[in-house]
Amino acid sequence: MKNTVLRFSILNLTLLLLLTVSCKNQVESGEQTKSLTDAELLGNQELDQRFIESMGQMDIEKLMSCFWDSPDLIFVDFEGNVHRGSDNIRLVFEQFFAQFEALSLVCDEISHIRAGDSVFAVGTATYSMQMKDGTSQQVTQRWSDVRGKVQGRWVYVLDHVHFLSSSNP
After folding, report:
1. What dotted CATH number matches 36-167?
2. Which of 6, 54, 113, 155 makes a 20 to 30 Å CA pair with 169?
3. How much is the pTM?
4. Is the dihedral of CA 18, 36, 57, 127 positive or negative?
């Protein structure tokens, strides 16, 4: 447990350092005041919509098209586990989908922020889940991600989620 917390803390520290250096460089270069172009915002909104649809359809292929196909892809799940690589992350989501009879996702709020050639996004979302055992659950999460444009399309290169609340309606 101690090693997991230490590794998680080191990852968080590394990401914070990278964000700080990136933001410092943007302020020095004047980039921070630039907002997303209309085309960049549209591309990121399309990515958000494709992700929401793929979760509701529990469509693993459509879902994975939202992520960078790379061993360097990072996903931090609800429990704080760090998963690396698109193959590993595919398995995580296959196991996630296997729990549900039905799943819906609503993005409650989202902000997109330029970070050099990348886009940072942060928001909240609510999952409504019908479990295979007949019970239902609703979960609200806070999420943040880093997106990059790869081969002409926006994809997640780092995705982090954590629970805000959970209820059984």
Report:
1. 3.10.450.50
2. 54
3. 0.78
4. positive
